Amino acid sequence: MRVRKGKIVIFSLLVIAILATVLLTGKQVAQDITLGLDLQGGFEVLYEAQPQEKGQKITENTLKDTAQALSRRIDVLGVTEPQITVEGEDRIRVQLAGVKDQDKAREVLGKPAKLTFRTPDGKKVLMDGSDLKEGGAKQDYDQSGQPAVTVQFKSADKFKKLTQKYIGQPIPIYLDEQQLSAPVIQEAIPNGEAIISGNFTAEEAQELAELLNAGALPVDLKEIHSFAVDASLGKESLQQSVEAGLYGVLIIFIFVIGYYRLPGLVAVLTLISYTYLVLLAFSLLQVTLTLPGIAALILGVGMAVDANIIMYERIKEEMRYGKRISSALRAGSRRSFLTILDANITTIIAAAVLFYFGTSSVRGFAVSLITGIVVSFLTAVALSRIMLNLLVRSNLFRHPGWFGVKESEIGEL
User: Where are the transmembrane segments (predicted)?
Assistant: First the structure.
């Protein structure tokens, strides 16, 4: 039989392309993945939502609005990729990876930040934060050059009438129940702009402006529990997890090559592709990688190997029936597909249930697992078949031993 060199050339180019892509871009892809709280350190807090006023009901929409307000506040902390999840009927969990100042995080997240302009006796609210323009607060300086916050109102006419009514009297400005200042109105203010002073530093004024722009919380938040993960502990966890994963994968590589020979080598190449594509998917989808996520990635490698083993065992079985290698490859691939499909569908269903009912870390595991299963179909099933077909059709590997089958075993079934 004539050796088809073109098939070997295509196979070789495919291998070179896979390895070159992984070596040249793999490090950058891994660095672009956002690490979770348990891998880079940070802060997690669980809140219980409580009514601000008598008769206020905590509804699903109220919790969603609170979560959105918390998300805007987190921008003040400079944290990227926060994890905010609503749990049950009145709980909100916030995970902030990379946070160093936990006290500041607590203050920014839990403070109601309800701004009010009140009557001179401080009892009646005249205007509040809902009257502010969106993004209408900014850090500024007062007439004496001290840091202050300038706020812009939606209705300049409303503010003009209010200041006209209280000329010669103070209008106290409160943040929650703390009085910030009580400026005396000298004349009606027509431009709808007010200045809030209060012995601020420039940093405090900037933080207050950002907090006001983020908006007040629709409910009070009571801290149920919180914990912090030190950055060094997170780094150590990541290092140990990666090392354990590499040792496990290396053992898998040695096993499949030693037992399945040529198909085992193809399996190693497809597993390298699988790992790279999963990490690339995490990066593109902006998945936050956690320790459970790494566990799911390693589990996915095992499942991808399992898919290869199912197919290779079916091929070996067909060869033992006495079929030619090319016929055994076609029959084994076809007959193993439904088994692989069924196994992966049941795992996807289980992962979907975990995602629906689980908390944040469990959901991270579920997302990682589902991503891995989808990618395994592209590599362990499709890519593996393509590469094996190229090798078989090259007519260079005609001996059963290349596929882990002894000649004495052929015809035994």
Answer: 244-260, 265-285, 291-315, 336-358, 364-388
pLDDT greater than 60 at residue 1 = no
Angle at 94 between CA 91 and CA 95, to 5 degrees: 145
pLDDT in tens, 133-159: 878 888 988 878 888 888 888 888 988
Amino acid found at 192: G
Q: Which two tokens stand for residue 103?
A: 């006290």
The structure tokens 């040792």 sit at 247
Q: Say if CB 387 and CB 268 are below 8 A apart.
A: no
Residue 49, φ and ψ in degrees, nearest 5:
-80, 130
Please report, for residues 191, 291, 341, the alpha-carbon distance to residue 154 in angstroms, rounded to integers and kept in the order given: 10, 47, 58
Degrees (nearest 5) of the Cα angle 53, 57, 59?
A: 135
User: What are the φ/ψ torsions at residue 257 (nearest 5 degrees)?
Assistant: -70, -40
pTM assigned to the model: 0.65
Position 273 scores a pLDDT of 92
pLDDT tens by residue, 221-256 = 888 888 777 766 667 777 887 888 888 888 888 988
Q: How far is CA 238 from the centre of its chain?
A: 16
